Here is the input.
Amino acid sequence: MPFFSLTQVSRITGGQLSGDPEIRVRGVAPLDTAGPEELSLVAGHRYLSYVHATKAAAVLVSESLSREVPGAVARVVVPDPHVALTQLLPVLYPEPKVEPSVHPTAVLEGGVVLGNRVAIGAYTVVEEGSHLGDDVRIGAHVMISRGCEVGSATVIHPHVTLYPGVRIGARCLVRSGARLGSDGFGHAWMDGQHRKIPQVGGCVIEDDVEIGANTTIDRGSIGDTTVGRGTKIDNLVQIGHNCRLGRHVIIVSQVGISGSTTIDDGAVIGGQVGIVGHITVGAGAKVGAQAGVIGDVAPGSTVSGYPARPHKEAMRASAALQRLPGLMERIGRIERAVFPNKTP
Amino acid sequence: MPFFSLTQVSRITGGQLSGDPEIRVRGVAPLDTAGPEELSLVAGHRYLSYVHATKAAAVLVSESLSREVPGAVARVVVPDPHVALTQLLPVLYPEPKVEPSVHPTAVLEGGVVLGNRVAIGAYTVVEEGSHLGDDVRIGAHVMISRGCEVGSATVIHPHVTLYPGVRIGARCLVRSGARLGSDGFGHAWMDGQHRKIPQVGGCVIEDDVEIGANTTIDRGSIGDTTVGRGTKIDNLVQIGHNCRLGRHVIIVSQVGISGSTTIDDGAVIGGQVGIVGHITVGAGAKVGAQAGVIGDVAPGSTVSGYPARPHKEAMRASAALQRLPGLMERIGRIERAVFPNKTP
Amino acid sequence: MPFFSLTQVSRITGGQLSGDPEIRVRGVAPLDTAGPEELSLVAGHRYLSYVHATKAAAVLVSESLSREVPGAVARVVVPDPHVALTQLLPVLYPEPKVEPSVHPTAVLEGGVVLGNRVAIGAYTVVEEGSHLGDDVRIGAHVMISRGCEVGSATVIHPHVTLYPGVRIGARCLVRSGARLGSDGFGHAWMDGQHRKIPQVGGCVIEDDVEIGANTTIDRGSIGDTTVGRGTKIDNLVQIGHNCRLGRHVIIVSQVGISGSTTIDDGAVIGGQVGIVGHITVGAGAKVGAQAGVIGDVAPGSTVSGYPARPHKEAMRASAALQRLPGLMERIGRIERAVFPNKTP
Here is the structure.
């Protein structure tokens, strides 16, 4: 790993250097584990207490936090340290080149169309009629069922399953173990048993979408399940049949969304949230971690708790709940004063 | 995809046609996305508002809802539109024929017994002594460990793992990434560390069971984990060791059931529910989404919340909680009136 | 399966025999399903009611519970029946010998180093530069990406993915479908979209760790995600980037831990718990199932509920909540008495 001077770091990030420009780093690490050849970052107030003891050669820090960092600490002041990381890390840690090639053990059935510079890993299976765009990179042990489409420069990690007819846009990232287009969970009670309703809809993922490890996105029952452009989905998430996710939505780990629910553009859904079916979470809404959403959420609002309601109300109710045992004693005292002759 | 007339639709579903019998459809889609060559359905009151604007050629609708659908809309009136879908979709969307064959890359170890017309996908491994019944269809990349049994006409999707000795009945469906018969989570504290208790029980799945993508069902520690006939399990569910699930149980996505718990026939467990170990959820009980069940649930009852309790109580308590901050102010006013000389 | 006399059972477990020493067993089963050739155990008071009807040949039982078991029941009295199982089950159910061999279909890239007696299953891929220690056993369809290290005697089940550079210690067990070292979920908002922050840290698993089926452990963004020696993680758990788990921690199924959180030695995290990022759960702390932890947890404390707080407080508040509707009626009565002229 080559060294970079702080001058180079400030040039790459567009930041302002304060300290010895000849200081050289060759990696980035958290404040408490960084060594003298590493750069670190101050990501928030919480981390200021680590700055004094850090062995890091220098830090990335925002202008407002920079004032609270001791003067002796070399630094590159940037508008947003996380944005700076997106610029810096690809330079300090260049990804190994993947030679575009199809592993000899890959199984490509008839009618498969490959773009230019496609890489396909060992033991991957691409069934008949699937199309992979230019610069697509498919890992090992991936199953691409018949009639799928994968857009250019999309990366699919090992052990992913695309069910038949799944369509993925360009520049997407699908992490290991994700299952796209699996049958939804729909049954009708007939003749004394639950009978499966055939799931004949599709699963459509637009451009620039990220899908987490072991996440499952069901195909539509009739009509499609859709994920809008730029939406990012974390690990172990469940998206039910016929859900429609808008653009630039964030879905944190272990969220479950029941069938036919719409999540509008820019909404942020916290970890382990559950959302019932057939509702709409409005554009830009924020749903707090572990909330249980059982009705529509207004655009731009912030909700939490179970059942989910405006976050401030939920917090107030939660705080009041803690005081409830004491409240009961107070009410007992009042009753004894007001109804002195009453047997409790 | 061929066309079907409404006359054919009404014959297939046993429904009553109202409108031009010559109208032809070749697919089914939701009201808001259906085109003029597609049939749709009115699945509940919530969807009535979409009927006016739909471009669908006709709708499936129940008798009671049909009265609220404008007279101009062609329709087939059926007792239950979802039941009608189970009849109609296999005709409109016939599944592609899978030729029964064993892919040349599949590894079949010694002593494997295959029934008639078995299909096995690329790179699937079937270890020694496993038995697959007639018409079994196994996808690609499946691992069937030694000594498993798979009943006739059962379908196993890609990337499923059956651990040693798992027994699956007939006509089951196991979706991609499910892990059946994995070691349960059992330890004893010995010599300053958690030591694994060997998990030597089995995992037995009866007929007509459906298991969701990336769901995990642990084998018994001693004795078996069992799933009864006709039970349907959604994606990302965890079933602990020695659980006993009855018949026709519904388990929605992301449910977790701890070890040695019994779920009796016909119970319905909502999404993200957690159930502690060593208890019983009675026959026909309903557990609301996200509930935390920490004790036995009576047969036929409906519970919700954490800790789970009768649903009506939980709703009433939840509503009261919202009024709690206001209640506190009222109590303050009372106290000032009743104890005027008391310092607050 | 050979038979063992109760004399042998008591010798293996170091227990005290009470009953006919010639009784022979050849398996262990729960009280209610055990047959006359099987041993069972009384694992707690809850199971005493099953002892009268059991057909088991004998039981393992602790000294304190033994007094409540009818005298006619043959038994081996041990300090802890679960510890006894760890001694007894490997003898009664010996694991089939796995001949150390590399399956001819396994793909081993250049620079892979294998220790002695390594077993590698069918279709497993080991990328360049990975090192596997002595007695390592890798199942079928496993993906070990470039530059990984797997310590001696570690067992990896089918369909596991190790992302590049993952380091696993000795004697670990990784169950099917686990994803170790996947990219963490980190984005910066730039140019009107969420842009992925490269995840360049590592994923380090120490000795004697157990990782459940379909669990995901993300690599660090910068710096490492670490799991300490002897820690046991159940199925379908999510561990975010840069988490630091201490030693001998227990993480039950479906827990989600957000990025940069520390779980100290010996903590026990119940099923479906959610823990926010950037906090510390102290050594030996216990977090009740389904809790939502939004701040530091003191060492040795027990917390539950959402937001998580000391368990006794949470239980008291929860109990009070149930009485709240009745409380409201009492307050109404008081108000009518204290403010008789006020319109409600």
Remarks:
- Chain B touches chain A through 65 residues (CB under 8 Å).
- Helices of chain B lie at 6-13, 48-51, 63-66, 81-92, 311-338.
